[in-house]
Specification:
It comes from Halonotius pteroides. This is Probable branched-chain amino acid transport ATP-binding protein LivG. Keywords: Amino-acid transport, ATP-binding, Nucleotide-binding, Transport. Pfam families: ABC_tran, BCA_ABC_TP_C. The protein has 283 residues and is an alpha/beta fold. The protein has a domain of 177 residues: Rossmann fold (3-Layer(aba) Sandwich), CATH 3.40.50. The protein is built from 12 helices and 10 strands. Strands 6-7-8-3-9-10 form a 6-stranded mixed sheet, sandwiched between helices. A 4-stranded antiparallel sheet has the order 2-1-4-5. The longest helix is centred in the middle third of the chain and has 21 residues. Bound molecules: adenosine-5'-diphosphate (ADP) and magnesium ion. Magnesium ion binds next to helix 3.
């Protein structure tokens, strides 16, 4: 039993009000310091437990690294947090709001955006058009507005276009804007994915192996962009296989092993931990 559970039992009769006050205090503290809280998440696929009571917090303003051997459940965790999978148990809170049962677009509205390990195919679109298929887009909404309020739809489209152009410039890839999205390199596509995610102005951005398949030059650029965005206030949770990449960017780093958080520490602590080394060798 945790301390808070024990005090709940002790106070059981006198204090549902007190408990509510405590919950509210915790929620307010979350709003200030913790962007993402994952509590006791569980997810099984048949007999396989992919997420096994995973718990951790991401503090505002940090770049948190999430590492672990292949199949440890890193991508599954992202799918659970961002609402693409339904968890069997546990809770996810974004800025103090319980988002556990929300749809991905609702969670995005609360400020949490994720990218995919394998970016979606963007056939028949230019890079600029692909940018505008925003993660916050809700089907139907703008269609109805097109009849009721065409002027505001036009204005919003103009603004989105301008924002997309600015972000492409920030990322120094505006020269790709009119290229077919299928014609750019895998590395450039990863940068476009990051740029596109930023268009939704996330408070926390979850990146799933952003450096995978990216050449060293673009990889450096990607790291610079993540650092720059972090300095401007975006919090990151970063899955990455490339140790040099993640260790140079992230602090703290958490290690996932068989769906469970094995440890959390500084890059140095993690790299020198026997348990972590064993997990990688065993995996
Ligand atoms: P990681 O990203 O750490 O490499 P994953 O989260 O992709 O690991 O996978 C963790 C485990 O869950 C793996 O054994 C994988 O095969 C399994 N898994 C992931 N998604 C599914 C799914 N949709 N259906 C069945 N098994 C899955
Ligand atoms: Mg993965």
């Amino acid at each position: 039993m945790t301390d808070s559970q024990a005090s709940q039992v002790a106070n059981n009769d006198s204090s549902s009000e007190e408990q509510a006050a405590n919950d509210e205090r915790a929620a307010n503290m979350d709003k200030e310091n913790v962007v993402l809280r994952v509590e006791d998440l569980v997810k099984s696929f048949g007999a396989l437990v992919a997420t096994d009571h995973a718990s951790f917090e991401v503090e505002r303003g940090t770049i948190m690294g999430l590492i672990g051997p292949n199949g440890a459940g890193k991508s599954t965790l992202f799918n659970l947090i961002s609402g693409f999978y339904e968890s069997d148990a546990g809770r996810v809170t974004v800025n103090g709001t319980d988002v556990t049962d929300m749809e991905p677009y609702e969670i995005a509205d609360h400020g949490l955006i994720r990218t995919f390990q394998t970016p979606r195919k963007l056939e028949g679109m230019t890079v600029r058009e692909a940018m505008l298929v925003g993660p916050r887009e809700q089907p139907g909404e703008s269609f109805i507005k097109l009849f009721t309020d065409p002027e505001s739809v036009r204005e919003r489209e103009q603004r989105n276009l301008k924002d997309a152009q600015e972000i492409l410039e920030d990322f120094e890839i505006d020269h790709l804007a009119t290229q077919p999205a299928t014609k750019i390199s895998g590395g450039q596509l990863k940068l476009v994915e990051l740029a596109r995610a930023m268009l939704a102005e996330p408070e926390i951005l979850l990146l799933d192996e952003p450096a995978a398949g990216v050449n060293p030059t673009l990889r450096k650029k990607l790291a610079e962009q993540i650092r720059r965005l972090n300095e401007q206030g975006t919090t990151f949770l970063l899955i990455e296989h490339d140790m040099e990449f993640v260790m140079s960017l992230a602090d703290p780093v958490i290690v996932l092993d068989r769906g469970h958080v094995l440890m959390e520490g500084t890059p140095d602590e993690v790299q020198n931990d026997e348990g972590v080394i064993d997990a990688y060798l065993g995996g």
